[in-house]
Amino acid sequence: MSTYYKYNQTIADVFNKKHDFSADTFKYALSNTAPSVVDNTLAQVSEISAGNGYAAGGTQVAITSSTQTSGVLSVVPTADVVFTAAGGSMGPFRYVAFYNSTPTGGLTVSYFDRGSSVTLLDTETFTVDVQATLFTAS
Question: What is the pTM of this model?
Fold first, then answer.
């Protein structure tokens, strides 16, 4: 079971309209270094090396909708994201960072901590199962 964390700056970034969940590009990036909740850009996330199926900057997360009701913002993904090792192993990684890749440098939103590191062997997959709602903020 993964634990979910929001970066400290996320709520301020949402309030200051630095994230447009209907137009910006959001991605998941993999890391094996514990993020700090005060990190604000992808550059502050120690991303794993690109190769063997992992692209630098991670994989795009398609957003179906974002709604705000009674002061609660909910962001709904189109589908889960699957990482597949190809041509060798991918990782190790423990953390899955969710970030907005549209602004220069990429603005972090949240991350999952898997609890332990994993290395995918060639052809193995890792699915980021985001359930019905990817992100909520209030």
Answer: 0.88
